[in-house]
Amino acid sequence: IPQSEFFGTKTEGGGLPPWLSQDAATFKVLLKTGNMIARTVMSVLEEQLQLPAGSFTKLHRLNDDSGDFVRVLRYAGAPNDDRDSPVGMPAHKDAQSVAILFTWLGGLQIPDPSAEIHDLNVKSDDWRWVRPEAGYAIVNLGDAMEIFTNQLLKSGIHRVIKAPGQQRPYDRYSVLIATRPENHCLMKALESPLIPVREQRGEVMTSLAWGHSLINGIRKREAEATARCKSVVANA
Fold it and tell me: FRET label pair with 171: which of 19, 44, 77, 102, CA 20 to 30 Å apart?
């Protein structure tokens, strides 16, 4: 559900469908609270990076048009002997600034701190489970923060696979609250004594154009990963 359903200046899709509109107030609170938490994280990072107050937070105001959203994710369970089942989401980084994830089953994995990572390629043995904890959310920095700091802050690589052990047969549901820069923000590094200076490569895109390009890349990799898994099963 996009931020534009409740905040900003434009509505995408003409409003919520009837089966969702009854819970509109809940979704609105989720987006508002997620934005507040994300901006709190950003304000701490501003101070630690010796940036002027508001350097991050002014780019993520709730009522500015942006790609913020709340999303319910479902990954189907699989029989315990279904070893060739496709990955739920291949290795990727988040096309946003801050992601807040609520989940109740295993399946999320991140690379071991000592893992050698080339682009998004991680050896199978180097993936580690992220254990869900009751009452806690998982907070992840995304690609936007990496761009704003010239890679001083890192966007976390992760993937989703079938849940381990006795959790495996059950469907995995998660709630994701995403915070992105406002649509007209230019995706380039900010200036700070701590942020390294590097030559700008390629065209500086707006947040809106940048977000579309990353999402298209994620969808392409997901389709390729699914195709590879199906090929393995067909040739087994």
Answer: 19
For 58, phi then psi, to 5°, come to -70, -15
The residues facing 177 across adjacent strands are 70, 100
In degrees and rounded to multiples of 5, residue 129 shows phi and psi of -70, 145
pTM of structure: 0.85
Q: Each residue of 72-82: b (16+ CB within 10 Å) or e?
A: eeebebbeeee
Q: Give the whole-angstrom CA distance, residue 115 versus residue 23.
A: 43
Lookup: tokens for 70: 């709340």
Closest CA to 30 of 2, 57, 61: 2
Phi, psi of 141 (to 5 degrees): -85, 145
CA 103, CA 132: separation in Å to the nearest integer? 6
Closest CA to 153 of 40, 1, 27, 49: 49
User: Hey, is 90 helix, strand or coil?
Assistant: strand
Edge-to-edge order in the sheet of strand 127-129: 89-92, 158-160, 108-111, 127-129
Q: Give whole-number Cα distances, 35 to 32, 133, 145, 169, 186, in Å.
A: 5, 22, 15, 34, 20
Residue 199 CA, chain-centre distance (Å), reads 27
Cα–Cα distance measured from residue 151 to residue 91, given in angstroms and rounded to the nearest whole number: 19
Rounded Cα gap, residues 20 and 13, in angstroms = 13
Mean pLDDT by 10 residues, the chain (236 residues): 84 74 92 97 98 97 94 86 64 92 94 91 93 93 96 94 88 94 95 91 89 79 74 66
Select from 134, 181, 175, 179 the least CA-distant residue to 26.
Answer: 175
